Amino acid sequence: MNPNVIPKSLFTFLRALRKNNDRDWFAEHKDQYLQNVLGPAVELVAQLQKPLARSAPMLHVVPKAHQGSVLRIYRDTRFSKEKVPYKTNVGISFRHQAGKDVHAPGVYIHLDPDECFVGAGTW
Questions:
Q1: Which of 52, 62, 108, 115 falls between 20 and 30 A from 97, CA-CA?
Q2: Distance in angstroms between the alpha carbons of the first and the last residue of the chain
Q3: DSSP 111
Q4: 3 state SS of 4
Q5: Are 53 and 97 in contact (CB under 8 A)?
């Protein structure tokens, strides 16, 4: 496993996004997002797939951005007072085979310039 799979540029991009959280800025920097954030997040999931298959085979570890373990960057702003369109963190979710909804047990990895953590349990 490559210990450097998450580059510093991931956090640099997220800090810049925090200051420029609008659609025009994101569109101009989408290539940087794909290269520095989404790509490394998918690679991290890919590197965790085999070890977790051995130690936690009940978790779905899907190294894909769309309909995979890496959560989307787009915020659901429909019912939120805060209307910024993008999350300023990376979320990775490994869901349990027992349930397809968010309330099933699982593991969550949170990557943020200010805090990173791993959580496990149920919602």
A1: 115
A2: 30
A3: E
A4: coil
A5: no
Token pair 């977790």 is found at: 52
User: Three-class SS of residue 59?
Assistant: strand
Cα–Cα distance measured from residue 30 to residue 36, given in angstroms and rounded to the nearest whole number: 10
Q: What is the DSSP code string of 35-104?
A: IIIIHHHHHHHHHHHHHHHHH-TTEE----STTSSBPPSB---TT-S---SB-SSEEEEEEETT-SSTTS
pLDDT tens for 67-110 read 999 999 999 888 888 889 999 999 999 999 887 666 788 999 99
Neighbours of 47 (CB within 10 A): 16
Residue 104 identity? A
